[in-house]
Amino acid sequence: MLKSKKENIAEYILWLWQMEDYLRAFPEQAGATKELSELNEMMHREGILEGGHLQLAQNALDELENLHADLLNEDAMYRAAIIRLTPQLNLLKAKTDRPTMSDIEACLVLLYQIMLLRLQKKEISPETASVQQQATQVLQFLSRTYYANQSEV
Fold first, then answer.
1. Per-residue pLDDT at 146
2. How far apart are CA 52 and CA 17, in angstroms?
3. Calpha distance 112→90 (Å, rounded)
4. Are 138 and 81 in contact (CB under 8 A)?
5. What angle do CA 135, 23, 66 make, to 5 degrees?
6. What gap in Å lies between CA 22 and CA 49, rounded to an integer?
7. Which tens digits make up the pLDDT trace of 70-90?
8. Residue 125 neighbours by CB under 8 Å, 6+ apart
9. What are the contacts of 44-49 at 24+ separation with CB within 8 A?
10. How many Å apart are CA 141 and CA 118, to the nearest integer?
11. Distance (Å, whole) CA 74 – CA 12
12. pLDDT of residue 1
């Protein structure tokens, strides 16, 4: 069974990205479980075996983006958290091949890159850890709000 985006939509996106990378690194594992087989088939159909993200991940990111836009207009505390995080996100974006990515995608990219660094047993600077904490708080708030909105439907 695929991880549910209703549990935590940000974790769902990060999990999908991780599974995509796993299947690219270890294609022989594509049939190891039903879940990996399904994801591998989707990657084949969507032509992203070499790079890119599944439409499932993009759809979830789009949902987070829409919620983010709503919250910027409706929630002063959320808006303040994003404003505090914006300079660090802009620095991150400038170092990528996609400097125009959204702030929410940049938060996810940051967390994913930190996860990869930790897997490589590389040290994370205190400044990066601070930005990670801020991005995590933003994504946790978005995920909780997303879940609350889904419960109302």
1. 94
2. 9
3. 17
4. yes
5. 35
6. 11
7. 999 999 999 999 999 999 999
8. none
9. 48/20, 49/24
10. 24
11. 25
12. 43
Cα torsion 36, 43, 4, 22 to 10°: value is 50
Q: What is the dihedral of CA 57, 87, 143, 47, to 10 degrees?
A: 0
Dig out the tokens for 84 from the structure. Answer: 């505090």
Separation CA 79–CA 91 (nearest Å): 19
Q: At residue 132, what is the residue type? A: Q
Interacting residues of 56 by C-beta distance below 8 A, sequence separation 6+ = 2, 16, 42
86-122, pLDDT tens digit by residue? 999 999 999 999 999 999 999 999 999 999 999 999 9
E strand or H helix at 147: helix 126-152
What is each CA distance from 136 to 62, 82, 111, 121, 131, in whole angstroms?
18, 11, 8, 20, 8
